[in-house]
């Protein structure tokens, strides 16, 4: 049921003609309340798409009635007219819902640098509003926001007291920090204020979606929204809610990882023994972005030297002769030198785990990435055509 698993939400996904494929490309998610509390996190890219700039302003009020999402165009780097198009989209949804455009968030995904065909998008919003439902609407909405995604990505969990968290996401390429090029809408029928939602969302995404780093490329459109209807009339413990929300975000992170463009390996980089969590994340990201290592993993070569060279480019606290590295459970590097026989490493499975022990403290973090393949290069060399 995706975003319609929690009570108080309806959704739709329709064909508006924005995608050349003729598949669904406009989605609408509506919060029927009684609460409209909301929170959001956005790309840290300094070049922000018009819908990001708009939605950042909307979220300052801590209330969202509905979210309009489109694939088939990012509406990024489109100037003042692009921002006007986003405003017009919000105004259209507000008119149909008899509400205020100031509580309508907008998300777009697709090719950067081209304006959206508003003569197709606005009728698509009309159509989506007419097809809103709690039944099939959530899955249709998740399907409509796909670009190069091969499958729709959804998740939901039930919390203590019967409240639900539901979510949908898209993302398959340009996967890097600051939310992994994704559009994501998370809904809950729990009753929490905007401030609590914001704390929970930042904690959950910080440990999951923000640590997915497939290709080191940060999107202009990253958006994760959390909407609460309060329809379950349950006020959960904030810590318990955050833990459940983190589970949902972790599930989405995994789905994004295994559907990454052209990837044949899903790689978890576990950094342990760090002096701080920041150090662990910094080391994990450096390894995740090492193209030589990503090529080696694609070729099923346990080249641990490339791991150490990536660690050495960071400012993390460690001593080179205290570093240890395991690949799929085999400690191929011990104390900065050769360890167990690398031939014992089996890299045939899709899932690969690289563990790096910095021997510098009690902290740890995991960053996720993929291998570098010819399919990835091909898909991204022809993206705009």
From TrEMBL:
Active site, renumbered: 181
Subcellular localization(s) per the UniProt record: Cytoplasm
Pathway: Amino-acid biosynthesis; L-arginine biosynthesis; L-ornithine and N-acetyl-L-glutamate from L-glutamate and N(2)-acetyl-L-ornithine (cyclic): step 1/1; Amino-acid biosynthesis; L-arginine biosynthesis; N(2)-acetyl-L-ornithine from L-glutamate: step 1/4
This protein's record includes keyword Transferase: yes
UniProt EC number: 2.3.1.35, 2.3.1.1
Residues the record lists as binding substrate: 147, 170, 181, 261, 380, 385
Protein name (record): Arginine biosynthesis bifunctional protein ArgJ
Organism: Actinomadura monticuli
Encoding gene per record: argJ
